[in-house]
């Protein structure tokens, strides 16, 4: 995404921001509530209004329109960290949209440099985030599968720290160091 955000500004690696209005009086032309859809052709935003939950009168974007085709890369620069993160959160479905459309392939992978650890989570929850236990069981994930992931990553000590109880709640953000949290985010991809 181009740093200055002007319509038609060339972005990095051939990416072009078509439009990215940021004035709070300018509303996106999409539907009343934002929508998400699967798009196997790439990532896209169409007139996406991404609100700022901390400053409702100063949205992150009022009419963001851009596309990144599969096989291409995109470097998001400029603005504030919160604004850049809002783009990724909208793609992942963890950021609300007031209007517009967001699409991404089902195979989209985003690994944060500071992985999210849900407070009050068990080891099972920690490994399968953002899914819940019911969803993961339906997908065929078992304790044996998770134990294999821990063994492959040399993280079997986590089960020991949870007293061999997959359901025991632990404050993992305090138990694990930064490097371990990052490795854990990679384990979630397996």
Quick overview:
This protein has 190 residues and is α+β, with helices and mostly antiparallel strands. The chain is elongated and about 50 Å long. It is built from seven helices and eight strands.
How would you describe this protein?
The protein has helices at residues 81-92, 123-128, 133-138, 143-152, 157-161, 172-175, 178-187; strands spanning 9-10, 16-21, 35-38, 42-50, 61-69, 99-104, 121-122, 169-170. A hairpin with a 5-residue loop joins β1 and β2 (16-21). It has seven helices and eight strands. The protein is 28% helix and 21% strand. The two termini are 29 Å apart. The strands form two sheets. Strands 1-2-5-4-6-3 form a six-stranded mixed sheet, with helices on one face. It has a two-stranded antiparallel sheet with strand order 7-8. By secondary structure, the protein is an alpha+beta fold.
